[in-house]
Structure formats: C-alpha cells, structure tokens
Amino acid sequence: MNWAVIRTGGKQYKVAEGDKLNIEKLDDTDNESVTFDEVLALSAEGVVTLGKPTVEKAKVKAKRMADIKEAKIRVVKYKSKSRYTRTTGHRQKKTQILIEKIES
Predict the structure, then answer these.
(1) Which of 22, 47, 49, 51 is the most exposed, having the fewest neighbouring CB atoms within 10 Å of its CB?
(2) Sequential pLDDT tens for the chain (104 residues)
(3) What separation in angstroms does the CA of 12 have from each of 23, 50, 68, 84, 95?
C-alpha cells in the first residue's frame, strides 16, 4: 500500500489514496483541486523514502470536498473569591479533502 507523510497547516499527516481528512482551512476558496508539495516521507511498492527535509519531485494531489467547522470549544476564565467568570467559545475552521493520487 502506498502512503505519504505531508505537512500542511503546521501539522503532519500520514495519507494514502482514498483517505478523507479534515485539515486546517485552506485559503484558496475557488480551487477544487489541491496539490501538496511538502512530502516528508513516501512509501511506494514497499520502498520507504525519507526526505531531507522533503522528498524531491513528490506530490500529493487531493480534491477539496467542503469547508466545515469543528465542534465548539468552551473557554472559561475564573478567579476565586472575586466573583469573576468569563465564558467564551471557539470553532476552528477546517477543510475536508479527499486524497486522489500520490506521485513520486
């Protein structure tokens, strides 16, 4: 099985063809296909290639499925004995992608 390790949004993901991922939101909203050039490791037909820091000429092509939001996270600030409480929330924006092809 072929797989690759890509870096996007400050995180690393191990991907294979046909995988669906939720990654940090991508800026280009009108583009349906996405190409990841930062391939850190690559496994093709049982041979693993490690990059220094990236594997040259390796690309991962993906299809953009949707822009979504994660579940809300509640953030609470509290100070005892002073009646101070503040509650805020945050929803991280993500992009859902489908890995189509791993090229070496």
Answers:
(1) 47
(2) 799 999 998 999 999 999 999 999 998 767 789 999 999 999 988 899 898 999 999 999 999 999 999 999 999 999 999 999 999 999 999 999 999 999 98
(3) 10, 14, 20, 39, 15
